[in-house]
């Protein structure tokens, strides 16, 4: 039964969907000429057997920091191939996602050693032993090492590594090898958290990536769409809408690309032959819904029940409600789902304060005249329909 449930599905709109995925590294970078120029001047000394500058790259999520860095280092490696006199270049990427200095150094050692050689031990040795081993491995090979430490703000105790590594040659730890460090971060406060000594070295060259505007996003996703989608599939206005929505929200190319892919899915599901503005709008709504659902699921049951109560009040056209009104509906909602409601008004008010702080609610203070004193009124910042749908699906999941 149901053997042929997949047989009717064909891919009609996508030429190569993977090009719209997170893993894809573009071979053409558009709209980042100034940043590429800055990189070029920071790294050019590698071509002449001199130390490259250390580089610190920062900017918000999705603005091309990783993509541009990979692109520039590929181009540098290609150029070195074409120049027999140039020193060998070894590029090692490492994502510092919640790493210790030890684990980061270990991963660099293993990456230099290659898959066939012994792995550096996971535990049992000191960080300074690991750093010495790294220098030995580098010197044994010679040439220039470029270490790209992505999401460097996630590194615990970054000062140690970032003080040591860029100075290794000056301090006599390296004789044959040279080293350049590229640190990438989307955390603006990271810079100020570093010690002044580290700031001076790591930040020899800083390259700031600003959020993209709508015109820039439009040219980035047009270039991507040409490869990923069948010719003529995305309507011009749909591309412009993706760009406009992402520019207005975050200025992230990732967000714009995701929206186009999702829009392609919506169009395909609808059996359409082109991707229109309506498909993009529906995709944006779907993404938004997904985000709200994730956020809601992270809340406690009572937090969720309170939000559901306010959503019900709002769909009845009762917006800006007081905690007492919320409590009445909350109690009914809780019992309806078979949960024991919280009994005191105070505990509900505590939840309301938390939910306000988390951005689910907006709170305004009302003065009810001389006798009444001040009280708060609450409003949802989310679409009440989405809250109600999500709550429904959470409750039905729990019963499965
Ligand atoms: N200028 C550009 N030209 C072409 N593609 C781009 C450009 N900028 C970003 N992209 C694409 O947008 C997506 C996000 O870019 P990237 O991963 O480089 O962002 P990031 O700044 O490193 O973000 P994060 O801080 O989250 O790591 C990737 O798919 C990337 O290929
Ligand atoms: Mg990145």
Write the layout of secondary structure elements.
Blueprint lengths: L32 H11 L11 E5 L5 H17 L7 E7 L5 H13 L13 H15 L1 E8 L7 H10 L9 E9 L4 H4 L2 H7 L2 E5 L4 H15 L7 H14 L3 H17 L7 H21 L3 H15 L7 H14 L8 H13 L3 E7 L1 H4 L1 E7 L3 H16 L1
Parallel strand pairs: 1-4, 1-5, 2-3, 3-4
Antiparallel strand pairs: 6-7
Helix pairs in contact: 1-2, 3-4, 5-7, 8-9, 8-10, 9-10, 9-11, 10-11, 11-16, 12-13, 12-14, 12-16
The protein binds adenosine-5'-triphosphate and magnesium ion.
Please tally the β strands and state the result. 7
What is the CATH class of the largest domain?
Alpha Beta
Can you name the CATH architecture of the largest domain?
A: 3-Layer(aba) Sandwich
List each distinct ligand once.
adenosine-5'-triphosphate, magnesium ion
Order of helices and strands: HEHEHHEHEHHEHHHHHHHEHEH
> What topology, given as strand order, has the largest sheet?
2-3-4-1-5
* Uncertain ranges: none
Largest sheet properties: 5 strands, parallel
Q: Please identify which CATH superfamily of the largest domain we are dealing with.
A: P-loop containing nucleotide triphosphate hydrolases
Find the CATH topology of the largest domain: Rossmann fold
Number of helices: 16
- C-alpha geometry: globular
The SS-based structural class is alpha/beta
- Count of the separate structural domains: 3
What is Rg?
A: 27 Å
